[in-house]
Structure formats: structure tokens, C-alpha cells
Amino acid sequence: MTNISSKTSLTIHAPAALVWKALTDPEIVKQYFFGTNQQSDWQQGSTITWTGEWEGKTYQDHGKILEITPGSYVKYSYWSSMGGTEDKLENYQNVSYILNEKDGVTTLEIGQENIKSEAAKEHSEQNWQGIFGKMKEMVERGQVK
């Protein structure tokens, strides 16, 4: 594992319960995450998968829920079939979502560990901002209920 990690955050003008729903409901995720099919029962130790097609290539990414406090925190392992690495433990990253709500406004912090390079770190941070920026718009527009 590498020591490169990242943290990025977004402020979402909505309660944490709606943000959590947007992170975990597969029908909502599909709308903002490039049509990705996300599947998990969101229990500690359970698998989580993402499948879909990107630029004509199918992908099957997966991991395990490592820690979870429903509604406010989840940490999962993650391996991407598009990442160009073998599916083995040292190539997995850990991703976390932390939700903090104050006065109906939620801060979503996204953390990522075991990033392979500084360039990959920058790319990940931009991707997280883009993906969850779309989710933020959906939540703030009232498209998540």
C-alpha cells in the first residue's frame, strides 16, 4: 500500500438523511454516477459492487464494507477493473464518506487511501468533486426525497 491519501468535501444544503440516501440508493446513484449500477446491503462485512460501461468498455468494480454507521459514516475497500491493476489486496483503496449536519446543511467529506501516485490523487479529487457535485445538485433541487 502507498501512503498517498486524499480528502475532499462538499457542502450540501440539505439534511444528512437525504445525502445518505443519495449515496446508498442504487436508483439515485445511477443518475449521477455515469449510469453505474451500485449494489450493497450496507452492512459491515458485506460486498459492494459497481458495474456499468464507460467509453464502450464494461467494468465490474468491487469491495467490502469495512465500517459503517448508517446515516453518517461508511468506509469500504475498493478495486477498479479499469485501474490497470491486478485484483489483489495491495491494489485496493479504502474510500470513506463522513456526513456532518448542522442546521440542515450537510458537509460530505470523501476520503481515499492507498492512491498509487500524486497524479492519480489529483484525478480522484477532481472526479469526486464532479460526481458528488452532480449528487449535490440533485439533492438541493429536491430530486431526492
Task: Describe this structure as you would to a colleague.
It is a single chain. The protein is of the alpha+beta class and 145 residues long. It has a single domain (4-140), classed as 2-Layer Sandwich (Alpha-D-Glucose-1,6-Bisphosphate, Chain A, domain 4), CATH 3.30.530.20. Helix content is 27%, strand content 41%. It is built from three helices and seven strands. The protein has helices spanning 16-24, 26-32, 118-140; strands at 4-12, 37-39, 47-54, 57-69, 73-78, 93-102, 105-115. A seven-stranded antiparallel β-sheet has the order 1-7-6-5-4-3-2. Strand 3 and strand 4 form a beta hairpin. The chain is globular and about 45 Å long.
% residues in beta strands: 35-45%
Note the gap between the termini: 39 Å
Task: Using the CA coordinates, give the radius of gyration.
Answer: 15 Å
User: What are the low-pLDDT stretches, counting only 5+ consecutive residues below 50?
Assistant: none
Treating each run of at least 4 consecutive H or I residues as one helix, how many helices? 3
Largest sheet: 7 strands, antiparallel
Order of helices and strands: EHHEEEEEEH
In total, how many beta strands?
7
CATH architecture: 2-Layer Sandwich
What's the helical proportion of residues? Answer: 25-40%
| Average pLDDT metric | 94
What structural class do you assign from the helix and strand content? Answer: alpha+beta
Corresponding CATH superfamily: START domain
